[in-house]
Amino acid sequence: MARHAQSLSTGYDNTQHLSMGVLALCFPVVEVQRIIEQCGKASRRVRDLPAVVVVFYVMAMSLFPAVGYQSVLRWLLCGLQWLGSGNFRLSGKGSLSRARQRLGEEPVKRVFEQMAAPLADANLPGSYWKGLHVVALDGSTLALQDTASNEAAFGRSSNQNGKAAYPMSRFVALAEVGTHMIFAARLGRYDTSEIELAKTLVDHLRPGMLCLADRLFPGTPLWKKAAATGSHLLWRAKTSLQLTRIEDLPDGSWLARWTPSQGRKGASPDLVVRVVEYRLNSRDGEIYRLITTLTDPAFASAQELAGFYPQRWEVELTIKEGKSILRQKQLTLRSKVAPLVRQEFWGLLLAHYMVRKMMARAALDRGIDPDGLSFQNSVEIMKSTHTGPVLSFSP
Fold first, then answer.
1. Tens of pLDDT along 202-225?
2. Are residues 108 and 140 in the same domain?
3. If you placed Cys at 151, which of 167, 276, 313, 382 could pair as Cys (CB 3.0 to 4.6 Å)?
4. Are residues 148 and 231 in the same domain?
């Protein structure tokens, strides 16, 4: 039996149909449209690719990193049903690129900043410890397309053998440990230190949080700024960090005076921190040194702090999910010019956040820890169910 060709309506009608997808379930279209208008990027005329569609398209690029640009758009609009009227022209690669350039970085960045919030649900296993909301800070790098624009904007690594094959960018992220949801991030040049990027990121810490971080981060200016937010800190420190022991505590930990580096301009005054030192596995094992603002052993003993600190590795897994699993081990981001690299970066974080938020909701429905769910399988479920009606969850 002969079939009539599928036909899809054009312009703003496509935006309405996006509400059928799992992306719009996490990021409501009306809210995304509001943010676009705040940025002055709302489409002024009917287009096949209105701005709100392009925002979702940028997110979708990270869900399908190994397929062509048009195939990503086909998936994004596959929630459209057999409509029977109107025509839809699938935009070409050039049109998609121009649409992304019209949109720019700011709307996608603001969608992340305004809508990617931690779940902060005490009923979800792993999210809280001793009544404190657990988050973690860490950084990494991303390889970029080998173009002059990317190299000029982000730089690349080099050693005695010459320059690296690809330009690189560096980023730092804050993630909710229990859900792996990244709720704040900073992107910079490869030669920008993670500490410099973290200096503005720690403003997102809040009273009632416990922030975990690795030994790269401890420095008195960053520590002081992070502690001033009211959040508690539990960071690993290098054993070479100069600390002056001032009081032994009954659980084996001790209080120390932490003096800023001598001669540093604008150095902060001495800080008092609690120190926990321990070895792993054997007498000859590596010494771990933790410093914390949790100074009362009655609230958290040295043994409890040492046992809890490995939760910091959850942020390492979070970054791996975004860089490797979600992107299917693609070596570089797609974008060839720096403004679109920044746009793609925020789209990548939004795509990862969407998957992790849906996983957290599913875990809450079942009363289980999200760590018991497979990130990769969840990605595939969400990609395949986009073609149907909005999920009622759990997936």
1. 999 999 999 999 998 989 999 999
2. no
3. 167
4. yes
